[in-house]
Amino acid sequence: MKKLHKELKRFSAIEAGLAITGRPAVGIGLAVVFLGVTWAFTAMTFGQTPSHTFLVLAAVVGGYMALNIGANDVANNMGPAVGSRAMTMAGALLIAAICEASGAILAGGDVVGTISKGIIDPGTLSDNVKFVQVMIAALLASALWVNLATYLNAPVSTTHAIVGGVMGAGAIAAGVGAVHWSTVGAIVASWIISPMMGGVIAAALLLFVKKAILFQDDKITAARRWIPVLIGLMAGTFGMYLLIKGLARVYAPPSWLVGLAGIGLFLGVWALMRPIVRRQTVGMENRRKAVSGLFTHALIFSSALLSFAHGANDVANAVGPLAAIANALAGGGLADKAVVLPMWILVVGAVGISAGLFLFGPKLIRTVGEKITKLDRARAFCVSLSAAVTVLAASGLGLPVSSTHIAVGAVFGVGFLREALANHQELSHLVHPPRLDAIDSPQRVEKLERRRLVRRQHITTIGAAWVVTVPLSAALSAGLYLLLTAFLE
To answer: What is the pLDDT of residue 17?
Structure first.
């Protein structure tokens, strides 16, 4: 009991700290301190030669981008868990910060050759200086756009932002013909594919949970049968997800081993969870809310794994251009396929993402987890599981997807399923009322038909932000590149 009291005190201290850092002036001040430390470290480490001045500038801009990734992108992983009350905001921020930093430092890297995502042919850039200017302009443009999107309460793809930035500055520097338009077309396709796949898979999972467990008369028996299966499915899926997406730098296993690992984890966790769920349900009320609570630990675990994989992959959006600049200034080739990132660059990305998450992340976490639609733990579980399932399915089919769009699309999918089922149930009661005095007026029927469980304004705001991310980042990057080159002439 004393140990529990101590832990609660710690979280109270974190909550109090968040109340302070959540104030805009304090958050901005601490962000400036982080960027100042980044500037001081790189300036003292690499000196003041002209080429190293570029590196110092790039390090500060990369740190700024990392702050914005933490403020915007991480909400997709932690929003459902916080919105469903499986975790407090303080607990979510702490777990996400640790997992994001661990993923970035332990499994991030080898991104120099892929940062442009095939957008610009590096061979079309005449020299290293021009390449460095393109990367700085792209990084700053994408960071500014993500910052604005966060202010507007819109979760956006930071990958799309950096791709748009590289495209815009690269097109100005090397010509429009240097742009790989087929890759841009694939990104445009992902605007539709990602949220649709995420939404459909999340809705299908939730429909199964409702039909197989929550709508059953004996919910306890149904939970004992199916929840170990669902948690086993999550374990197997996330095991494959981490092998493919999160640990690629550490170890890239063959496909057969990924599949075998997924099956092994599914069977092992299923066998482990059967007696655990049975013990948890002894004396449990036969109610939806009580049964939904059985997903709590799996939801926390999945959010942590998503954050680890995100740190391993999306840290490249902040430090990838920085690594490319460092490689170019060191005399490396512009088209090098794999350059191991220096640890200091990974630390800038990891610390920046964690700092941005703590200082500015709660706003977007609440948007994803609470403001789009109401999430309980069963719904949040389906959102988290669908993110991993969708990425694996899209990878197998060779489809371009965005993890941000998938997660947000999954939240919308769950919300629209709730809306459809609720309206269907209410209208069925009107058509076949249990009592004669339960018959309502035609006005009541019309009102029920218009019932909304998903806030429509978020569809417009988020959808518009997704559509303009690439072109706006490209235009902004092009303008910044022209300003930078004019200033240096």
So the answer is: 55
11 against 271, higher pLDDT: 271
- The pLDDT value recorded for residue 23 is 62
pLDDT tens for each residue of 275-323:
999 999 998 999 999 999 999 999 998 888 888 878 877 777 777 788 8
185: CB partners within 8 A, 6+ apart:
none
- Region of 69 on the Ramachandran plot (φ > 0 left; ψ -120 to 50 alpha; else beta): alpha
Tokens of 265: 């984890």
| End-to-end alpha carbon distance in the chain | 68
Q: What is the DSSP string of 28-88?
A: HHHHHHHHHHHHHHHHHHH-S-HHHHHHHHHHHHHHHHHHHHHHHTTHHHHHHHHHTTSS-
Contact 185, 118 (CB under 8 A): no
Query: For position 14, what pLDDT does the model report?
Result: 53
> Measuring CA to CA, which residue among 414, 422, 425, 420 is closest to residue 378?
414
Q: Which residue carries 């990425």 as its tokens?
A: 391
Element (H, E) at 11: helix 2-21
pLDDT tens for each residue of 442-465: 555 444 445 678 888 888 899 999
Predicted structure pTM score? 0.85
Q: Mean pLDDT over residues 434-444, rounded?
A: 48
Pick 159 or 332 by higher pLDDT.
159
CA–CA dist 4, 10 (Å, integer): 10
What token pair was written down for 414? Answer: 């769950």
Instruction: Output the CA–CA distances (angstroms, integers) from residue 460 to 122, 189, 454, 463, 466, in the order listed.
Output: 37, 18, 12, 5, 10
Between CA 104 and CA 263 the distance in angstroms is 27
Return the pLDDT at 130.
85
Compute φ and ψ for 175, nearest 5 degrees.
100, 155
- Report the amino acid identity of residue 242: L
CA dist., res. 139 & res. 137, Å (int):
6
